[in-house]
Amino acid sequence: MRPYRRKTLAAGVPLNGKQKLLSFGAYPAVSLKDARAQRDEAKELLAKGIDPGEEKKERKAAQAAKEDVASGLTEALQPVRNTSLAALTDPKAVGALLRDIDACEGHFSVTYFLKILPYVFTRPSELRRAEWTEFDFDKELWRIPKERMKMRQEHSVPLARQVTALLRALQKFFGNGQYLFLSIRTQTIPISDAAPLAALRRLNYTQNQMCLHGFRATASTNLNELGFRADVIEAQLAHKEPDAVRLAYNRVEYLKERRNMMQAYADYLDELREKRA
């Protein structure tokens, strides 16, 4: 009697002119009906320009986080001590990172989050939970409500031309929803931090090299090197001010200066992206 062998169910799907093989599991653990359903779902993702394989990886990463009972507590709890978070600050390394992000494949929410974060350098949670109603495209301004800010003060982020262009492109896909970066599996909640972090790791940036929060240190270091005033940089980073009077003053007084700084920094990042030597 011939020994029984499990058969792997797979299908070839075209992506960017190339044929990719997707595995749906082993038969009979996965039925032919289920495999066909997964194949049809993969075709739907391809029609939207999404790599089914990358989407599957991001979904697993997100699922592993939303199952972690401690997931989400990091934003609610104050850290016990200050630690230095991994960040790339060397201009050449930053340029290489930006090029890698541009080449990153995956769900629109994840790829656009990673493309926008370096330009606005807010805290990751402030960006991933952003809502369309917070953006004033006529004034080129993003107002983050105080409830989402660490210091519980409303924060304004001037939008550089590059950011506005990315937001307009993203709006074509998710403009009808509440959030900019919708969850991979549902249209009612934003993505978790697990998905973009997993994408960063797939780009071969380790936890000792770069983290999502590290884009703030990247911006701070390079903006100081470029000669922008420390007070203006700190105001844009929304760090704690000594008193409420100075906080209110800086938020209004520095807005024009911060707007110029944000556009200059966006142009600087584009220059770093183009330099390969």
What attributes does this structure have?
about 10% strand, single chain, about 280 residues, 3-stranded antiparallel sheet, two-stranded antiparallel ribbon, about 50% helix
Explain what the structure shows.
- There is one protein chain.
- The chain has helices spanning 32-47, 52-66, 73-76, 91-102, 108-120, 124-128, 161-174, 194-202, 214-225, 230-237, 244-253, 255-274, and strands spanning 7-15, 18-27, 135-136, 141-144, 155-158.
- Helix 5 packs across helix 8 (194-202) and helix 9 packs antiparallel against helix 10.
- Strands 3-4-5 form a three-stranded antiparallel β-sheet. Strands 1-2 form a two-stranded antiparallel sheet.
- With 277 residues, it is mostly helical.
Short recap of the structure:
The chain is mainly α. 50% of the residues lie in helices and 10% in strands. Helix 5 crosses helix 8 (194-202).
> How large is the share of residues in beta strands?
5-15%
Termini separation (Å)? 64 Å
Mean pLDDT: 81
Q: State the strand order across the main sheet.
A: 3-4-5
Q: Please report the number of helical segments.
A: 12
Could you list the spans in which at least 5 consecutive residues all have pLDDT below 50? none
Helix-strand category: mainly alpha
CA gyration radius, whole angstroms: 21 Å
What shape does the CA trace take? globular
Tally of DSSP β-strands: 5
Oligomer status? single chain
Helix residue percentage? 40-55%
Query: Main sheet, how many strands, which sense, barrel?
Result: 3 strands, antiparallel
Element-level helix/strand string: EEHHHHHHEEEHHHHHH
